[in-house]
Design a protein that fits this description.
The protein has helices spanning about 5-15, 20, 25-30, 50-55, 80-95, 110-115, 125-130, 135-140, 150-170, 170-180; strands at about 40-45, 60-65, 100-105, 185-190, 195-200, 205-210. Helices cover about 45% and strands about 15% of the residues.
């Protein structure tokens, strides 16, 4: 069976089940547009599905996905800026009330970054993308209290979320709304093994469990 056959079968179940049960709501979204209150920057990892983890409906979340859920700094260059463009639309177009940077354990992008310490960096798109956290990685490698690979990777995953939150504030339309109280920024981290969800304390930088 081709992998896409599963998707086609799933679509048929959607058409006969969910779509029929929620046709009015879905038609309203199609006609009136989207008005989500929350934007989420999430990892592309197939094991982390924000709408499933947070039990949300279509129209609830504006989801921006990339490798390692990173927010790049605001840059005025002629390069292509997919994540920045999506954030701009979420903030200035949809006027979301919150942006959540949703990280997770066992992140492949973070592991790839940590594994390159002291090695020659290749020219892949992934390696160049992850160099945003090169300084974070170097600080972690220099920290002698982090004794093993798991603890270093966990630390980088958490610091990567903080780094993205800091980068969000380099966008003038984000900073303006945060300063005026119209927009709130959050750092969350999902544990693939336990399904625990933690939120970063803005004052301490520590992640505290918010799930029961």
């Amino acid at each position: 069976m081709a992998a896409t056959d599963k998707l086609i079968a799933g679509y048929q179940r959607f058409r006969e089940g969910y779509y029929q049960d929620n046709k009015t709501k879905l038609s309203k979204l199609a006609k009136e547009g989207q008005f989500p209150k929350i934007a989420i920057v999430s990892c592309s990892d197939s094991r982390v599905e924000p709408t499933l983890i947070l039990d949300c409906e279509p129209g609830d979340l504006f989801v921006i996905r990339n490798v390692a859920n990173l927010v790049p700094p605001c840059e005025d260059t002629d390069n292509f800026h997919g994540t920045s463009a999506a954030l701009e639309f979420a903030v200035t177009g949809l006027e979301v009330e919150s942006i959540i940077v949703l990280g997770h354990t066992q992140c492949g992008g973070i592991k790839a970054l940590m594994d390159t310490d002291g090695k020659k960096i290749d020219k892949s798109f992934i390696s160049k993308w992850m160099l945003q956290l090169e300084g974070v990685r170097d600080e972690i490698i220099a920290d002698t209290t982090l004794k093993d690979e798991l603890s270093r990777n966990n630390c980088c995953e958490q610091k990567g979320i903080q780094h993205s939150l800091n980068n969000l504030m380099t966008f003038p339309w984000v900073k303006e709304r945060v300063d005026s109280g119209k927009l709130r920024l959050h750092g969350w981290r999902y544990d693939l093994n336990s399904s625990e969800l933690c939120a970063m304390d803005a004052k301490t930088g520590k992640f505290v469990r918010i799930s029961k």
